[in-house]
Amino acid sequence: MKANHKGTIPFVLLLIPYLIGIAAGINLSVLPGNSSLLLFLTALIVVFVILNFLYGKVVYKAKWVGGSLTAVILVIAGIFNVGQNNELRDTTHFSKATAQNLIVKITDEPVWKNNSLRFTAVAEEAITNHTRQETSGKLLVTIKSEAARSLRYGNVLLISAKYYEVDPPFNPAEFNYKGYLANKNIYHQAYLYPGQYMVLAHNSGNPVIAYALRLRQTLVNKLKANIRNPDAAAVASTLILGYKAELSSEVLQAYSKTGTIHVLSVSGAHVGLVYLVLTFLLGFLNRCKHGRVIRAVIIISLVWFYALLTGFSPPVCRAAVMLSLIITGKTYNRYINSLNILAFSAFMLLLFDPLLLTDVGFQLSYLAVAGLIILQPIIYRQIVIKNKWLDKLWIMCSASIAAQVITLPLSAYYFHQVPVYFLVSNLFILVPSALMMCGGILYLFLPETFILSKWLGYGLEQLIIFTNKTLGYIEHAPLSSINKVWLTPAEYLLLYGIIVCAFVYAVKPHRFVAGLGIGLTVLCCISVIIKKTKAADTKQTVFLNLRKNTGIVFRNGDKAVVVTDVQVNSKTFTYSVQPYLDSSKVSEVNIIGLDSSANTAYLYKKGGLVKFAGQFVMFVNKRMPAKAITPDKAFVYITGNPIIDSAYLKLNFKNKTLIIGGNNSKRYTTKLAQQAKLLNINYKILYGNHALVITSK
Asked: Which residues lie below 8 Å from residue 141, measured CB to CB, with a gap of 6+?
């Protein structure tokens, strides 16, 4: 019995069930035990081997049997691999040990930002009363100390074992940072101050990685020496070396909104350029005996060193694996199927780390390349151009369209925006990015004090400034992007179904495909209309959990009043308040302070009292002290640890609900909740909990 593989793309067929298994393992709330899965997986493999030996002698001659059994094995293998890579399930995980201190080792390059140093560390030992216990597991460490800037990859630290679980998203539509870190096997974080850590050892990490990080920092400093503009130096460091620590949010937004963000991600194009340079420089080896093999070994080694230098991001790893296979195939004159190599590289990376599937960069990289391989030829054939140069331009346009179309639903789902002028911006960025890359590589090879280095550095600086300004103009052009795009998972899948139907129909027109595509389009439109209609008729009061701040959103359809002490341009507003407004399709927002008054068609606020949708909300804090609350069934929002005695609670809170804000101290919250419970008063606690959403009819 043989598994029935199709043509020259066996790894595409093997990858699909393995992806299903990984997705199932990630989304299962309770994973089966690894021992049970391993036993089941072993049994399936034994059955597969036995049936292969008995092939032709028994009735198992149907081709589907081999393929089906292989698919089941790969699905189970995917689930098993996810469980095996979940470090929290390990009995030696540091969170399962009682400890006063932890010995941790820094495992990545520390980043200094906002007067704090942040890095990922592995907990190697837990210490309790001078007793050491070996542990495992990663945690995110933030040290607020100027002296911490000297810490490097491979340093071993003794830290206080005061760590916390990463908080989930507390507010509607807020980014799930806990889930993001969990997909990197990080479940805890520690905030340290001077005196809460001690350096025990240096250079304890992998010497190759340590050397690569030191070399990258040296090269970044070399770029800064003759590229004086901070934004230009940051773009050059990101583009050439994958060093993103100093990239400003303004520059990042300009590239993102114009659909050219891929330029700032070291990926296949960058690795390909390195390959072309190395191929040219080592071309003389082809004339030597075994020269082709020697050249292949040198190029593959240097390509992987470049991948290491740029941080082993998923797009770079994908490009390095594919390029290694292509170089090997060409060296030995083997036929190469690009789609099969793409699938093989994904299979190998996911075999090593199945949680890479959750990485947005991994998804975008593989989808974009798949689009170039599968969709670009289809798009290119739709228009025949006889002029040689216009045809070359159309090739580039069709490639840009293919990559943008295949990644459109994914980009809209994650980033909630769609660039409109992506074709213009991508055609524009093509030449400058190539010049930046080539000029940057040449600059790094030249001595820093050489006069040509200074001229080249100045030229790179002016080119990057010009590119950034041009992208800024495109970003701020009318209708440059469609913002506030919030897709449901169903709409996301429907969009991909529509894209598949459209391209299948372009290759081979068929009524069924056309009907299916139209049906999926209608379903997607109905979903959007229902969502928009529902949002327009919804009235909600949202008591936000902003930790150190206060905020309530009163939403009336596509209009809202936000009562808060948070500044509009602050990170708290951007990440904790704005996502709810955008996802709710709010187009008109009125932001007022806690003490301000307001009178709109749907809301009235005077002092600390708000009337909205037939309900009353009373603010109580140190500036607006407790007083008699007359409306029945009112919500009393207590923030900032105001003094409230039991007599006041008993007298004023009958038929009312007490909302204890998230910016009250933990001790104050516990005490007030106990008092409310004793007096049979309804109460809700925001501290450490999700925002309270009240929908009115």
From this structure: 104, 118, 119, 120, 121, 159, 189, 190, 192
Same domain, 190 and 312: no
566 and 687, same structural domain?
yes
Contact of 140 with 120, CB cutoff 8 Å = yes
Instruction: Clarify whether residues 161 and 278 are in a common domain.
Output: no
Residue 534 located in a structural domain: no
Please give the single-letter amino acid code of residue 239.
Answer: L
Residue 5 domain-assigned? Answer: no
30 in a domain, yes or no?
yes
564 vs 473: CA distance, rounded Å: 33
What is the C-alpha separation between 29 and 82, in angstroms, rounded?
Answer: 12
Q: What is the CATH number of the domain that holds 133?
A: 2.40.50
Q: Is residue 89 part of a domain?
A: no
Residues 192 and 73 in one domain: no
The token pair at 30 is 């309770």
DSSP, res 575 = I
CA distance 66 to 75: 14
Radius of gyration of the chain (CA): 29
Averaged over successive runs of 10 residues, the pLDDT of the chain (697 residues) comes to: 53 91 83 75 82 59 73 91 88 90 93 90 91 93 91 93 92 93 93 91 88 87 89 88 82 83 73 78 78 86 84 78 82 78 89 90 86 90 89 87 90 89 85 86 82 88 92 87 89 94 91 94 94 90 92 94 92 92 92 90 89 89 67 84 80 81 90 88 90 88
C-alpha to C-alpha distances, 653 to 91, 185, 505, 643, 656, nearest whole angstrom: 48, 45, 66, 15, 5
Question: What are the structure tokens assigned to 9, written together?
Answer: 């793309």
Tell me which residue range forms the domain holding 550.
539-696
b/e code 246-260 from CB counts within 10 Å (16+ = b): bbeeebbebbbbbbb
Grouping H, G, I as helix, E, B as strand and the rest as coil, residue 635 is strand
Q: Which residues contact 152 (CB under 8 A, 6 or more apart)?
A: 106, 110, 202, 210, 213
- 518/651 same-domain check: no
Same domain for 575 and 512, yes or no, is no
Domain count for the chain: 5
Strand bridging mode 682-685 / 657-660: parallel
Considering the domain architecture, whether residues 198 and 216 belong to the same structural domain is answered as no
Closest to 626 in 3D by CA, of 602, 656, 591, 596: 656
The structure's pTM equals 0.85
Neighbours of 117 (CB within 10 A): 21
Residue at a domain's end among 30, 55, 84: 84
Tokens (6 digits) for 408: 């459109």
